[in-house]
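Consider the following assembly input.
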Amino acid sequence: MTEQSRTLAPQDVRTVACVGAGVIGGGWVAHFLARGYRVVAWDPAPGAERALRDLVSAAWPSLARLGLAEGAATANLTVAPTLAEAVAGADFVQESAPERLELKVSLLAEIDAAAPPHVVVASSTSGYPMTRMQVEASTPGRLVVGHPFNPPYLVPLVEVVGGERTERWAVEWASDFYRAAGKSVITMDRELPGFIANRIQEAAWREALHMVANDEATVEQIDLAMTDGPGLRWAFFGPCLTFHLAGGEGGMAHMLDHFGPALKYPWTRLASPELTAELRDAMVAGTDEVVSGRSNTELIAQRDRRMIAVMRALAEVAAEEAAERSEART
Amino acid sequence: MTEQSRTLAPQDVRTVACVGAGVIGGGWVAHFLARGYRVVAWDPAPGAERALRDLVSAAWPSLARLGLAEGAATANLTVAPTLAEAVAGADFVQESAPERLELKVSLLAEIDAAAPPHVVVASSTSGYPMTRMQVEASTPGRLVVGHPFNPPYLVPLVEVVGGERTERWAVEWASDFYRAAGKSVITMDRELPGFIANRIQEAAWREALHMVANDEATVEQIDLAMTDGPGLRWAFFGPCLTFHLAGGEGGMAHMLDHFGPALKYPWTRLASPELTAELRDAMVAGTDEVVSGRSNTELIAQRDRRMIAVMRALAEVAAEEAAERSEART
């Protein structure tokens, strides 16, 4: 049993320990600093502190543009000489070590031994289930996965899930804490290799690799197909809401009932699940929740407004960069 | 042999015929009108003209925000009473009929019989190969696929590919014409079911359906995972450039050499191709072209600037909409 009663309320966290300060760990450091936390980092790699401070400095102007929390400062970063010192005074620990299972297992056991037992510890792992990582920890109940996307100081998504020995309160606490820290949180009920976002991303990536392997498309065509095609919509409407609109007034139900046969087309190497009545109804009911009463007319207006805003914003950035380059040349 | 010598230069096109004026065809009509073309539309469905004019009116404010071409006006739209009249005077024909192969085959044959033989005819098909659609046409050499994304008046991407009996000049002409009409064009060398963008989208979609079918994720979680995760990056950096950055200073080469084993992980139901030396080198060389000499520091700066611009633009739209709703209530 962990000492849940001594755990701070998620919104009262002041000090975050970041164990591992490479691209992902350093990105977490920058995010937590920008949200006003004190951060204690530890990374055994040679030159890690210099690289970390450079990453934070490089990210800071971006974070300032997005809006810093009150009291946020790069001076709130301390680099600890040992793992034990890093986690000893922390209200929350984020582990972002290299992606090797045996390393994660032993590091999480070390963190678990050194951190106060009521403190929640999250791993940034891209895909290992916590069940396999928590095997050597004495208080595995407070160990969760908190999987970010790169760069963690900008991309809002964090996927939270526990292992078999994780206690439910820790999953809920971590979800609430990340939300308090400005993140967009998906709390998963069960462990799933790659979680959710990486599964979708990996399916797209493998199809892309197959196309290059078979000389069907080039890298350039694949990237352009994404950025100038579906990628523009996916910044604000996910795949389900997008296909709901593709179904016209009949929405997702019409889409599945009438374009269902497309699931048999060889449009990807990934076979489709059978479109059972259960799956059809689950997609329709789930999409209804996402649509949340908006009519197609409203959704189309919202989509168009966002797409134009995104395209104009990207065009402005490109124009600014071109002006800066031309200024730098003269 | 088609009469290529009589074909206008792509930039001299004045009149576009749109055959089929539903969501996709109507979207094309709105796009071509906004780019300053005269458009003649034909659609046999009852009420089609009213629906088309409504779609164009609804899209016009968006198109005006993006910037109209000189002379662009909704008054440049004519609805023809017959297919033959619609295409008789056209410099280019865009077919956007419902997605049924036998319908596409007969309609393209009718268009081919009625349109001047030197005029290029493009089909909006989402996935049929032109080889299977051009079988009843007398001059199949000028028939191409010009596959848009919904809504065609906003999403820039058009995938252009010919069938076995399409002549090379028609594919090149259509690509040049779409570019002149403000589109972002991928010219494919070979027919591929689903083309490129739909294959990537379909792989992501089928993985999503599998997750719902197996109770691993909800529709809401899938859409949030996309919009608040990889979807935010894909609006401006495609999957290959994204993974190049994930490789740190070693880029795509490091990513494949060190994270290659991840391709064996069960992170999606789609099996990966074998990471042969050829595939590895093709990915590295192709990514080098996309990177085009930019250092990682430059790429990260460009990524962060774009991501912040996109997030701020989307937040502004949401704030505007909230203000409008609250105004409407008072």
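The mean pLDDT of chain A is 95. Ask yourself how this observation constrains the way the partners meet.
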